[in-house]
Design a protein that fits this description.
Blueprint (H helix, E strand, L loop, with lengths): L5 E6 L2 E4 L2 E7 L10 E12 L8 E7 L2 E9 L1 E6 L4 E5 L3 E5 L4 E6 L2 H6 L1 E11 L10 E5 L6 E3 L5 E7 L1 E2 L2 E2 L9 E7 L4 E5 L5 E13 L2 E4 L2 E5 L5 E17 L7 E3 L2 E3 L2 H12 L8
Antiparallel strand pairs: 1-21, 2-3, 3-4, 4-11, 5-10, 6-9, 6-11, 7-8, 7-10, 9-12, 13-14, 14-17, 15-16, 17-22, 18-22, 19-20, 19-21, 19-22, 23-24
């Protein structure tokens, strides 16, 4: 099986999302998207002082036309939305929200976590929806770490958490409308793992921490890798203990028009989203 060639390694710049400082390897100059993946925000590691000010508090806001996905690595996130979903997901879990025709949600560290304090780390990934699915009914899926199947190699140096898609006979619990595969990968120094990814799928690989080799090229913490579509094999080898996120999916090849929390295919559709939010058609978050 031929190894995929690496097209680019991006070292994440720091940006501000309101008062929250985070890493943003996508989009960056010269790379607007890795179709169908639009944005990656890496928050953490951060420390929540016991009883102190909430360091992760994103108030109610709308979305339309894509799927914001939160991977929680440390701490806890409390999700509430205008469809009545109310869920707290802890370390190792995932919150996968299909915004579709429109939803209002909030994300915050829960009161219990703020009171006891602790470390916090998460990634939010924006996954685009194709034009024929942009106005589907909104949906929320939340799973804890122990609900996500994991492949562990014989040496116990590699663990692949299968969030969506398939790996080594395991199927992730997320029901992806567009057949997105998503894995978090935990490697101890000296561990390695292979993936067989169809050449037609784009790959986003992000190393949260550690260092190692990706198809024989070096990668370090907070770096993102993009690939050419010239092979199927992706081999990860850890030099230091490592934590990575890998997502794959078929590109849509469609025009993307975005404004703030809306991702559509035309400016007219963006204006319609703004109007529908103002008219209350995306619901109310109580």
């Amino acid at each position: 099986m031929k190894k995929r060639s690496i097209s680019r390694i991006v070292t994440s710049p720091e940006v501000m999302m309101g008062p929250i400082k985070l890493k943003q390897p996508l989009p960056v100059a010269g790379l607007n998207q890795i179709d169908p993946f639009l944005l990656l925000h890496h928050t953490g590691k951060k420390h929540q002082p016991a009883g102190g000010k909430n360091i992760m508090d994103v108030g109610a806001h709308p979305h339309r036309g894509f799927e914001p996905v939160s991977f929680i690595f440390e701490g806890e996130i409390h999700h509430k939305d205008s469809r009545g979903n109310d869920s707290v997901i802890g370390a190792g879990g995932v919150q996968w929200m299909t915004a579709g025709q429109g939803i209002i949600h909030s994300e915050s560290a829960p009161k219990s976590f703020i009171e006891r304090g602790g470390n916090f780390e998460m990634i939010q990934l924006w996954v685009n929806l194709p034009s024929h699915l942009k106005m589907v009914q909104p949906k929320y899926q939340g799973f804890q770490r122990d609900e996500i199947p994991a492949f562990i190699d014989q040496n116990e140096k590699a663990r692949v958490n299968v969030i969506s898609g398939k790996y080594k006979g395991l199927t992730g619990p997320i029901d992806s409308l567009t057949n997105i595969s998503a894995f978090t990968i935990e490697l101890k120094a000296g561990g390695e793992v292979d993936f067989d990814i169809p050449a037609t799928e784009n790959i986003l690989l992000y190393q949260l921490r550690g260092s190692g080799l990706v198809n024989d090229e070096s990668i370090n913490d907070t770096q993102m890798v993009t690939f050419f579509g010239d092979g199927q094999l992706v081999r990860l080898e850890a030099i230091k203990d490592s934590l990575l996120l890998m997502v794959t999916g078929e590109p849509y090849g469609e025009k993307v028009v975005s404004w703030g929390p809306y991702v559509m295919n035309s400016q007219t559709e963006i204006l319609e989203a703004m109007r529908d939010f103002q008219m209350g058609k995306m619901g109310v978050l109580v």
